[in-house]
Amino acid sequence: MVKAWYMDNDSSDQRLEHHRNPPEFLSLEDLYKKTGVEYFSINVNTYKSDGVLDKIKKDRGYTYEDEIACSKECLPNYEEKIKSFYEEHLHTDEEIRLVLDGSGYFDVRDGKDQWIRIAVSAGDMIIIPSGIYHRFTLDTNNFIRAKRFFIGEPVWLPYNRPADNMPCRKEYLEKQEKGFVTAH
Description:
Blueprint: E1 3-6, E2 25-26, H1 28-35, E3 38-41, H2 52-60, E4 64-70, H3 78-86, E5 89-90, E6 95-109, E7 115-121, E8 124-128, E9 134-138, E10 144-150, E11 159-160, H4 167-178
Antiparallel strand pairs: 1-2, 1-7, 3-8, 4-10, 5-11, 6-7, 6-8, 6-9, 6-10
C-alpha cells in the first residue's frame, strides 16, 4: 500500500526516504486534496483477469500501454536516465503508473511548493495530474517494473521547471485552487 509524507530538505542520496523530523505522513485523501494525485490498489496476481484494471482503463479512456523496467541491468544509460527522471518537470498529460514489481518514489509539489514523497510498490497505481511538478527516483532496492498507460498515442515529453506559462500548468493550478474532483 502506498505511503506519502512531506520530505526534508536534505539533498543527499535521492534514493533514501527523506522524512522530516518528526515525520509528517499524509493520508491518501489528503494527498488527493493537496495535489490531485489519485491512487488505486491493483492485485498484481489477478489484474489480467479480475476486471478491476480494465474498468479503470475504460472509464478513463486509456487506449495504449507499455511496460518499463528500471535497474542498472535493464535500463540503457542507467545513471543518465535516473538523473533525468529526478529533474523536476511536468507533462501535458496525466502520468499513470502501475507498479508490477520493485519499488520507488514519486515526488510531487503541494500548493505551498513543498515536496511530498509517494512510496510505491507492487500493486500501487498512481495517477499524477497533468501540470503538476513532479519527479521520480528508485529507492535503495534499485529496481522497479511498471506499466504505463496513455490516452491515445503515448506522449511523454517532460517540461522542466520553470514551465509556469504552459496551459496545463495554469489549468492544474486552477483545479488545485478550486479543489480536486475525484474521477472514481
